[in-house]
Amino acid sequence: MPTTAEDVEVMILAVADQDRTAFLSLYDATSAKLFGVCLRVLKDRGDAEDVLQDVFIKIWRNADRYKANGLSPMTWLITVARNAAIDRVRTRKAPAEDTEAAERMPASGPTPEGAAIAASEARRIAACLGELEDNRADAVRGAYLDGQSYQDLADRFDVPLNTMRTWLRRSLMKLKECMSR
Amino acid sequence: MSKHDITPGTPDADALAAEYVLHLLDPEERARVEALLDVDGAWRGRVADWSERLGLMADEIDPVTPPAHLRARVERLVAEDRAAGTDKPRARRSGWLQALLGGGVAATLAVLLLMVALPRIQPPDSGPLYAADVATADQALLVEAHYDPDAAQLTITRVAGSAPPGRDLQMWLLTEDQPPHSVGILPEDGTLSIPVIPFWGQRIPTGRFAISEEPPGGSTDEIGPTGTVLAVGEVQEI
């Protein structure tokens, strides 16, 4: 994406002033990324389209509060999209489908993507995920990228829920420690 | 267990903030964190840090161009939103939360907290009355607050729940422009009636009440809760 973070921020601030032209520019600059985020969580094109539409309405209505949360512009937009997609998953999913969805998840390791990631910050999290045991890193990635719940993760790795929670919390703390080095 | 024990009352704040960002908390835990986010800048900082840190993973998500008709639809919806006069949402107390979550979770929380209907009779010649149900999602703790501006009187009734052993429950008024204001320590039973000065009285209608568990005698911090915020309830006109 050629658009810089500063460009995106300027657009969000203009949207906060109800500038529809800026809103469409923001849509053009970010909708593909946010659609990718929704698709990754929802794994269904129709649902992802519905949620993306809601996400942009939320952005339109809430842009004036963007400044208050202290997030960088893309993080804010991705957070709005990701939370909306996860809320959709949690309301649509019957418990029986959880295991099935988890089984369909491709086994993903931290290494293959590493090469493709350009930004050094992003390389750093990939490297730090790489320091975790394999399935611990997969659990962190499953929670963030796929929006998996503790129940999804416990089913996927076939461990009790509390064990999963202990695992994930420890992994997150290791990740933080590694990234602050 | 480890230091990351999840027993209520021993939360590892940083891990909890990370779980909040990942959307892993159950509704009750999430409500507790959101109550903290409204009153505690350190919590907002933790959540922002984790959002940025974990957000780096989104780098590996490939952009996918959405279908063209979606752009047209969003454009139309936004134009209608303006036409309907809903383009500038009113300032809300949960502004930070709404900004981050886009309202969905906040709305769910409000519904959870306001599940109990308020069958009240308004005397014919009085002005507006205000009430809030301050409750945990499971209603294990439920406290009713009732404010009568004409009488400048706040009445607090504990309907269900009690303080953890050796702790007190403290009630707070959360406003848009002031730090959390201590309303008082809840008595074990019965009703507490408190005279309200105009400064706070005019803020109650747009405020919220919260309950935290604190050392005996109340929070040791002058400007807000030191213990866990257990419940929050929005004030409604009745």
UniProtKB/TrEMBL annotation, chain A:
InterPro entries to which the protein is assigned, alphabetical: RNA_pol_sigma-70-like, RNA_pol_sigma-70_dom, RNA_pol_sigma70_ECF_CS, RNA_pol_sigma70_r2, RNA_pol_sigma70_r4_t2, RNA_pol_sigma_r2, RNA_pol_sigma_r3/r4-like, WH-like_DNA-bd_sf
Record protein name field: RNA polymerase sigma factor
Enumerate the GO terms in the molecular function aspect. Answer: DNA binding; sigma factor activity
**Which Gene Ontology terms describe the biological processes this protein takes part in?**
DNA-templated transcription initiation
Question: Which is an annotated Pfam family here?
Answer: Sigma70_r2
Key words of the record: DNA-binding, Sigma factor, Transcription, Transcription regulation
Where's the RNA polymerase sigma-70 region domain? 26-93
Q: Which residues form the RNA polymerase sigma factor 70 region 4 type domain?
A: 123-175
Which protein family is named in the record?
Answer: Belongs to the sigma-70 factor family. ECF subfamily.
Region annotation (Disordered) maps to 91-114
Please spell out the taxonomic lineage of the organism that makes this protein.
Bacteria, Pseudomonadati, Pseudomonadota, Alphaproteobacteria, Rhodobacterales
UniProtKB/TrEMBL annotation, chain B:
- Kindly list the GO molecular function terms attached to this UniProt entry: sigma factor antagonist activity
Is Transit peptide one of the keywords UniProt gives this record? no
Q: Where are the transmembrane segments?
A: 96-118
Its domain of life reads Bacteria
Keyword terms: Cell membrane, Membrane, Transmembrane, Transmembrane helix
Membrane topology designation = Single-pass membrane protein
Which part of the chain is the Anti-sigma K factor RskA C-terminal domain?
Answer: 105-229
The answer to whether the entry has keyword Transmembrane helix is yes
- InterPro entries for the chain: Anti-sigma-K/W_factor, Anti_sigma_zinc_sf, RskA_C
Q: What does UniProt give as GO cellular component?
A: plasma membrane
Q: Which Pfam families match?
A: RskA_C
Its main subcellular localisation, reduced to a broad class, is: membrane
Task: Name its GO BP terms in alphabetical order.
Answer: regulation of translation
- Compartments reported by the entry: Cell membrane; Membrane
Protein name, please? Regulator of SigK
Q: Which organism is it from?
A: Palleronia pontilimi
